[in-house]
Amino acid sequence: MNSIISFLSSAILFVALGMILIGLLFRIFNKLISHPAYSRWSNRLFLFSGISIVLSIVVKPVLLYIRLGGGVKRSTLLVMLVIQEQISNM
Predict the structure, then answer these.
(1) pLDDT one-digit tens code per residue, 13-55
(2) Which segments of 12-85 are extended strands (E)?
């Protein structure tokens, strides 16, 4: 279960990176031809990539907390350790 959660979290981070790169490409298209649709799409991609990054970082400790069914002190420590691990793996 832990490996599945880690895989999904990592996959979402890579998808978010791809969304950022495509958003930058759309931003360049908007600068070249001044079409408002490219600006809207790039803004949406940046927004959803940010949401994806936050969710991929937050969901892993929450799911591990649910799986362990632990108390407040153990869950707080677990959340801190998992977030630290996520940041060090970036």
Answers:
(1) 899 999 999 999 999 988 899 888 888 899 999 999 999 988 8
(2) none
d(Cα 68, Cα 48) in Å, to the nearest integer?
Answer: 30
* DSSP helix/strand/coil, 49: helix
Q: Rounded to whole angstroms, how far apart are CA atoms 27 and 39?
A: 6
Q: With the C-alpha atoms ordered 7, 12, 17, 18, is the resulting torsion angle positive or negative?
A: positive
* Total number of residues shown for the chain: 90
- Read off the tokens for 80: 């801190």
Residue 69 per-residue DSSP state: T
Tokens (6 digits) for 44:
């949406």
User: For residues 16 and 53, is the Cβ–Cβ distance under 8 A?
Assistant: yes
Q: Nearest Cα to 61, choosing from 40, 44, 84, 45?
A: 84
Spatial CA neighbour of 5 closest among 81, 67, 54: 67
In the numeric block, which tokens belong to residue 75?
Answer: 């869950």
